[in-house]
Amino acid sequence: LLSKRLQAVASYIPKGSVLADIGSDHAYLPCYAILNGLSKEAVAGEVNEGPFRSAVQQVKKSGLQEEISVRKGNGLEVISPNEVNVITIAGMGGQLIRDILKEDQTKLEGVERLILQPNVAAHLLREWLWKNGWRLIAEVILEEDGKIYEILVSEKGQSDSLYTEDTQANLIFGPYLKSERNEAFQRKWTYEHNKRKHVLNEMKKGSKYENNEKIQDLLKEIKLIEEVLNWQD
Ligand code: SAM
Question: Transmembrane region positions (predicted)?
Fold first, then answer.
């Protein structure tokens, strides 16, 4: 059975799609997408030998060699332009996912939807999507085994008006997540708030408290988090 996290990713794969799952590891996601009638064909991309072999084995074990092509290579290198219409990239840092997307833009030709699950630094992805003509159509935040994950679903299209107001907060917290403010969201940002408070206290103990830019930044972030969590009186 797929993890709650990957199931949430899979729930945004449209029926009849041709999928590329980049950094697929065991290829659980493309196997699930084919077995559940979401995708008709898929590519599982892996850059590392160990995970590549796991993917080959899992695809064979599931009897899906006809439907899933397991390929070894870096990022989008494993697909051709117009080969797939949906790309999933999950379980990596936001910066790495962004770098994979920006490395070779021709590979995004024909891609209609990106489903991205950054473990950290989702704001870097939101910013890249926004500046490169991808609009955010949905976001998910969920907790599994004590960890909190974010999923960004994006479609090629006109410029995204979600960011025209309150840009910074939207990029950091996510425009959908921040208006929904579910339990996982509150937990994440309460934790991030505490973390910053702690750093701030440690810095106050030091001698360079005044005039410190880092402290000003921390104070700004703390205030922003308090505003979003509605802790203002
Ligand atoms: N996508 C799966 C998931 O969400 O459960 C696996 C996540 S695993 C933590 C990250 C995988 O990405 C690893 O198997 C790693 O080898 C692969 N990876 C890292 N950088 C990559 C790149 N540039 N191109 C392709 N795969 C990459």
Answer: none
Inside any domain, residue 167:
no
**79 pocket-lining for ligand 1 (C-beta < 6 Å):** no
Q: What is the ipTM of this complex?
A: 0.99
Q: How many angstroms separate the alpha carbon of residue 50 from the centre of ligand 1? A: 11
Quote the pLDDT of residue 28.
Answer: 98
At residue 191, what is the residue type? Y
- What CATH number corresponds to the domain at position 28? 3.40.50.150
Q: What is the pLDDT of residues 194-219, one digit of tens each?
A: 999 999 888 888 766 565 788 889 99
State whether 66 and 138 are in the same domain.
yes
Query: Which amino acid residue places its CA nearest to atom 8 of ligand 1?
Result: 91
Same domain? For 143 and 206 the reply is no
- Dist. CA 175 → ligand 1 center (Å): 27
- Using DSSP's 3-state secondary structure scheme, residue 114 falls into strand
Global pTM? 0.95
- Beta carbons within 8 Å of 19's beta carbon, 6+ residues apart: 13, 30, 33, 38, 39, 41, 42, 43, 84, 86, 87, 88
Q: How many domains does the chain have?
A: 2
Structural domain for 209, as ranges: 184-228
pLDDT for position 146: 95
Report the atom number in ligand 1 closest to the C-alpha of 74. 24
